[in-house]
Each structure stands twice: as C-alpha cells, then as structure tokens.
User: Fold these one by one.
Assistant:
Number 1:
Amino acid sequence: MVRHTSIDPGHIVLNFANHTGKWGVGNAAAKLLQGENPSASTVINEAMWREIDTEALPPDTIEFLGRITGSYSR
C-alpha cells in the first residue's frame, strides 16, 4: 500500500483499466503487484469455507456454492 496517499496500488491499476478499457495492461500490472501472494478469489473462497457450517446446509447447496465460486469445501 502506498503510505503517503493510502491508496492501494491495485485500486489504481484496476481504475486505469476500467477507464481506458486496457484490461490486458491492467491485468498484467495486477499480477505483477500480486507477486507470490494468493489471488483475491483464493483468499475470499478460503474465508467463505472457513465460516460456512457445511454440516448445517444441504449437500446440493454446498455443491452449488462450490460450482459458482469454482472452489470446494475442504
């Protein structure tokens, strides 16, 4: 995070891509900024599965969540 402005560099990159339509450049820059860190979707999916009580939901709901997120309960 850029400390003197408190604006996350990823926000700047994606804002640029959105306003210019240069998504290839934006995605390449976002991947460069990501480095070895896990993707946002990975972080979000892991947090989701940690918080969901899979025993309390029907199996078809769990399957649906896995399909729409591209992740599966561990």
Number 2:
Amino acid sequence: MVHRIMVIDDHPIVRNGLAGIINTRENLKVVASASDGIEALETIKGLKDSLPDVILVDVLMPRMDGIEFIKAVNITSKIIILSTEIDRYAVMNMLSLGVQGYLLKDEDPDDIVNNIEKVVSNDDYVALSTEIIDEINKNKSKKYFNLSDRQVEVLNMVANGLTNKQIGQKLFTTERTVKAHLTEIYTLLDVSNRAQAIAVAIKRNII
C-alpha cells in the first residue's frame, strides 16, 4: 500500500528536498505541496477522494501559518509538525492540537521519513525528535500529579515513540495492561489520546 503525503512549507528547497527523499520509499508518495496554509486548504479541496494520509506542516509561514492551518483544516489526515524551534511549550501547544508528531527540520532526512512511516503504520505512534525529548527531560519534575511511578514510566516510553506492544515488552507485561495504564493516565490528566497526554505531561513537567 502506498501512503499519500503532503508537504506544506514556504521554502521551495525544503518542499522539493523532502519530496525527493520521501518518494524514494516504495510505500510513500508526495501527492501535493503548498507554500502556506491558505494554498494548502485550496489544494486539499481539489484532492477530494485522494486526501493525504500524512501532512507535514511548517510552523512559521506567511499568510496562514501552521497553527492556523491545523485549526482550519477539517480532515482525518495525520499531521506532523516540521520546525526549527526546540521549545517545550511550542511542542506542548502543538500536541494539544492533536498532531501526531513534532520534528526538527535539521533532523537527518532519513529519520524524518522513518518517522513518517511509523506514523502512517501505527495510530499509537507520536513522532518526536531526539533533541526535543532531551529538552523535555531537562525540566522533568518529581511532582507526578497523582500518577504512579509506573504510569510516569509508561508516559516517558510513549514520549519516546514506543508502541503499546514495545512498552509491554520492556515492562514484561501484556498490551492489555499497558492500555489499562494509559486509560488511567488519560483519566488523571483529563485527556483523550497519547499526543494530548504528552502535551499535558510536558506542561506539568512530569516528563
């Protein structure tokens, strides 16, 4: 199965460079691109039944930036942010909007494409650059807001991109138990998905 990708960035070199690398993978194909949010919304309307599976979005763009685009677009495509900023609060705000990842533009291009493949193949995966995870961990707090040590451990694994199956293997437990941990975490943090849980955990310095 070939997954459709869209790239939104105001720099042609970035758009074309990413498209070239993405199109080298047999299971990925760039079907559309745009230089800002307004152009992207118009392009998406024209795609009709061939909507992208994943949209890569720059944050800082003219006319309509990435945040405005995310708030305006109303489709089921997964969204990954591409940014030059390593800012825990920017990451938190983006994840709270329900995006599936926050990657840095200076990341190794193959790592970016590998993250795209993980996002399209696994609904549980949240893509975060290693540098961003390191920045988040610098501000880790001992205040766990009623979370157990095991739940915090699970949250950290989620932030590091591990799936339920991988977390279960590391904790020597079942996927069902991991899902139970996540359900409790979502309840305690008052969120509904992994990305939002990471966002709240960053805000509260849990991870």
Number 3:
Amino acid sequence: MNTVVEIRRCPRCSARLSRSNPDRLCGPCRRAVGPDDRRAARLATLAPLPAPETTTEEAGPDLGGILRKFRAETRLTQQDLSDLLGLSQPYISLLERGKRTIRDVTQLRRIARLLGLPETAVGLLPLAA
C-alpha cells in the first residue's frame, strides 16, 4: 500500500511547492512575477479609468486623501492601487496616512495621469503655455 505522492515544483526556480499551495509558483516567484491573473484581469477592466469626482477643493493637495478618495470611488484595494501605480502596498498605506509624501514632480505627474486626474489635483501647478 505504498502511495505515490507527486512532488510539485515551481517551474521558475524548482523549489518544492507545499501541498497547501494552489498556485503553480512558489511565493517568492509569485511576488517577483507580479500580480496574479485575477488581479491583472480586474485592473484591465479599469483600463480607461473613470474620472472620479475628486477636485482640489474637496481633497486639497493632500495626496494621501486623494488616493484614499480615489480608492473609495473606484472600489480598489490598496494592493490593486499599488499594482496600478507601480508602488508597494505598504508605501500606499503610508501615503494615505500622511506618513510619507511624494515631492518628485515627474512621479506626481505620472500618478495624476494613471488615475485620470488633473495635475492640479495632486498639488502641481498647471504648465505655463
């Protein structure tokens, strides 16, 4: 009565997978590859992001408040927003709580573009013509 147990291995690094791991990849490889297909599919449905009702008067130039309000309006998790912006989830949390700020103009412009917000909403002055 010898039962043959198939040992599953991660195709990326050949690490042995736990029986409780439903994924094909091990944890470190999953994090290195990026979001899983379900999260990527959910973010793909947001491709043309709806313009939320956020204005600078409502949220002010406080980036954390803007991100929190945007997530509430679009029903995104911090992880979804971090995948969308290319930042880590803990960093999104720190931004929302006001523990970190972003002062880099290029990064603020990128965030405004990705969220479909005017640059003035994230505290930037309009470009001079």
Number 4:
Amino acid sequence: MGADILALPTAQLQRIALIRISQLTRGEVRGAALEAMARHPDLSDLRKLYFDLSQNEFRVVGGRAPQWRIVYRLRDALPGPDARMLLQVVAVGARAASEVYQLAGTRLERQSIVRAPAPQQSPSRAAAAPRRSLAEAQRLAVERLRHAQSRRR
C-alpha cells in the first residue's frame, strides 16, 4: 500500500490519500460498497473511497468525478478485550481503465468474472426512458447525497 501511495503523481495527492486513509481508520468516513462488475475481478466484499485534489469526496471537479480510489475491506478483529474491526487497504490508484480494481483483484488472487450481458430493453421502453447527460446525473447524485446528509443531522 505504501508503494501505491508513493506512485501517485503528485505529493499533494499522496498527502490526500494518507489523510483519507486516516479518516477511514478513525471512522470519520466510509466508502461505498463495490459491486460485481463484468470483466473485472469480484470485489463485492470490498469498499472504495474516492479522492482527488479536492478533499471533498462528493465534489465534481471540472464536470468529472474524483479520479483516484482507495480500495479496502473491513476484517474481523483478533479476539481479545479490545476487539475492533481491522481496516485492510488493498490498493490505492487510478480509477481510469479500472487500474485500481485490477490491482486489488491481482493482490487478492481473484480471477476476472464474465457475466452475461443485460437483456436488451424493447425499443418502445428504451424510447420512453428519459436520457440524462453525465453532468446532470452527477448533479442529481450530489443533491441526493447532500439531502441524505442533512437528514442524518
């Protein structure tokens, strides 16, 4: 994991990655659960945490999502009076070309999975479904996250 952080392209990204891992360790943040993805290793028992030059994980920078990921898992603690969940960072790297997910799969010695393609929608249903731009979908996702955060307060 240390080599992954040192391989990040800038010292600022390296610092942000360390800050985000520290936040994970203290329980201040929690990443999203990974889902099984076609043509990728099965990492559905792992989680991902976003980061970029902005430390705010929900901020869309220049119309794009954060480009870096920390892939980790929570493991059962060793038995004892101070038993807590253990955090295992599996990989830190780029989202581009699924680099970080492939690295995590390799480290965990997991093979790529191949799933059947999703069934095609009928032309009439596909035409009826509204299409959103990527920017609109990101804006709606950020709004939903902010709304969920305000309800928790």
